[in-house]
Amino acid sequence: MNERIKSSLSSEYKIFGEKSLKPIKEYAPSNSVIDEVADIFVRSARANGKTLKKEDAQLIVQDIVKNVELDPQTFSPIFRFEASDIAKDKALITKNIAENITGGGKFKPDKKGGLIQTKSDLAAFKSLFGEFKNANSIIANVTTDLAEIASRDRFYNVVKQGSDDLIKKGEIGIVYPTYNSARKAFGLDAEIVDASRGLQLPQKLGEQAYTVPINGMFTTKEIADGLIRGAANTMGSITKT
Known about the structure:
The chain is mainly alpha-helical. It has 2 domains: 2-133, no CATH class; 136-239, no CATH class. The chain has 7 helices and 5 strands. Strands 2-3-4 form a 3-stranded antiparallel sheet. Strands 1-5 form a two-stranded antiparallel ribbon. A hairpin with a 6-residue loop joins β2 (69-70) and β3 (77-82).
């Protein structure tokens, strides 16, 4: 986990302005870096049985530079690009480079046919976005984020335990392990969170480093919104010990 924190929270990217999730207009990666990333797209297309010209790949990269965003949960760049045959059911693929770093801080390639296959691929994208290490902010960032994560974790566990206690008493709980159990408890008129994923509450670390205890469980959308607001108040009385 320590390596994951060092590799994610201590990384910053020149492409984003201070405290901004959007790229700044003044940022311009070098032509050599654009070419290197374009080659990755050409190779990925070939691996999926498609032909992509180098100049078209360069246009894709330039579009990514204009539209990349900083994921507020992982603090890593997230971008979209046209799907290849392997994901033809999707018009666009959303890619977060945090997916290529495990909880131990090690490189993790995308699945077969995916975009990032090697450490050098990941390094190329990091260079494209202007990754740098801000030594002055590492300690402050890690300390602050660990404190926030610990506070949220206490909050989530209070919710889970409270829900379990209510259910044991024969009352309606807050969260349930399955969609069907939530539907049965809240009734047919209740709007339950997405059946395919369940709760997906925000977090600053990738799931390999920390998993929200109630993510994947089921509740109403109204309660889910309340949980998000409650988690945002990490230093509220309910999270203090």
